[in-house]
Design goal:
single chain, 187 residues, alpha+beta, 5-stranded mixed β-sheet, 4 helices, 27% helix, globular, disordered N terminus, binds zinc ion
Length: 187
């Protein structure tokens, strides 16, 4: 599937699995100002290694601010995030841009923003639902699966229009390749 690598996005809502950690609300937009915006910056990283290493995981600092292009980012501590399959939180590295003041949280691109289940696992469930017509046996809550499916159908209509005729699995891949979370609620 087409994962979104190296892309970033502004986020301000949860996408199906509701995280208990407090989340900042951002305004989005690209105009530099003094307001501290939060950006999710997707990187290639393995959750198991992050979990095993804790705060010693060797995160790679982005070469420049993806928001304003400033050449240097400062370390800004860690964000605690929870993922399916791990008994406790993982520490995700944060950086702050001294020019535009935005804060980046680096996040493994195996997972959409704010969703604890991996992209691959969600995709496999949607593939089964589309090809067989019902959900597979799974540890995932049916309510979550239905929520994701309903959001995917709404997002397909909204972004790919009702002329889309390649099915919801292809829509999932297409939306993901556009840097969107295919299964989060349509705002
Ligand atoms: Zn910046």
């Amino acid at each position: 599937m087409a994962f979104t690598r190296g892309l970033f996005c502004f986020q301000n809502r949860a996408g199906g699995e509701f995280c208990r950690t407090p989340r900042p609300v951002t305004t989005g937009g690209v105009t530099p100002n003094n307001k501290r915006d939060i950006m999710i910056y997707f990187v290639s990283a393995l959750l198991k290694q992050i979990f095993a290493s804790g705060k010693n995981y060797p995160w790679v600092r982005p070469s420049e601010c993806p928001r304003c292009g400033h050449y240097r980012l400062w370390g800004h501590g860690y964000a605690q995030r929870y993922f399916r399959g791990f008994p406790s939180c993982l520490y995700l590295k944060c950086y702050r841009c001294p020019a535009c003041n935005c804060v980046l949280t680096l996040r493994p691109d195996s997972h959409f923003s704010r969703i604890r289940t991996s992209r691959e696992m969600i995709r496999n469930h949607i593939e089964h639902r589309q090809t067989v017509g019902y959900w597979p046996r799974s540890d995932l809550l049916r309510s979550n699966l239905r929520y994701w499916w309903n959001n995917l159908t709404r997002r397909t209509l909204a972004f790919l229009t009702n002329s889309w005729c390649d099915g919801f699995l292809a829509a999932f891949d297409q939306l993901a390749s556009l840097g969107k979370t295919p299964v989060c609620r349509l705002r």
